[in-house]
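Quarterly update from the structural biology core.
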Amino acid sequence: MPTQHRILALVFHDFEALDLFGPLGAIIPRSDYYTLKLANIHNLGAPYGLESSIKNGIGTLPNLSLAEALKEEERFDTLFIPGGFGVMPMVWDPILLQQIGQLVDRAANVFTVCTGAMLLAATGRLDGRKATTNKRLYDEITPKCTCTRLLGSSLLLKLTFSLDPGVQWQKRARWVQSGKFLTSSGIAAGIDAGFAFLSNTYVVPEDREANPTIQKADAKGDATAIPGFNKEEALGHAHFVAFSLEYRWHSDPADDPFVDLPQSISSSV
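Predicted structure, tokenized:
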């Protein structure tokens, strides 16, 4: 059986719908390679784990509780973390951050959208790496995540001091790839980052059959080789999927017009 690329996405109360359904809606349905499971961060199993997205009440029914996702027998290649206002209270939960950190260490790839990068940063796994996040909240929230340190069972967050190494936040970026971490800017930028994810992970069927082994995860956050991966073929697949969706992929991560929005406009969006 050809190797599949297994994505584990975290869902929670008040996640942003487009953060999840935008990139994964483009990636999952058009491939026999990518699979998806949803894990409820609040540790509720179905049907009690129904989570509703921010603003619009769209519900998702997770496949797993967080406790089930943490079991060693639950295997995945990519950990996906959407954003939304529901992220904010979770960055102050040291036990939850430890658990998410364990999932991050086991993942060969980590993909965040919008303020999902804040949750990842709060685990300390982004220290020393470049990353980006939501533009509207950038100046307000990134200083609070410049440095994280895990001390025993409690997480120490430095709000006003940036201690080395810290997170190297990039404001002008549609998305940022640093090691195994792919972080995207706000909401719809996640769709562009989703196609970047395709171009960095997709393996054509014949190469999967010739290379049936799985990608290894690096707990230090470095990128690892994907067996059978061919960049040219993966990039061609990403463009093909974008075209089939009648979507113009902004494939240059530095092409970011939203960083220069006047404050009066960005604050009223």
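The first helix runs from residue 17 to 27.
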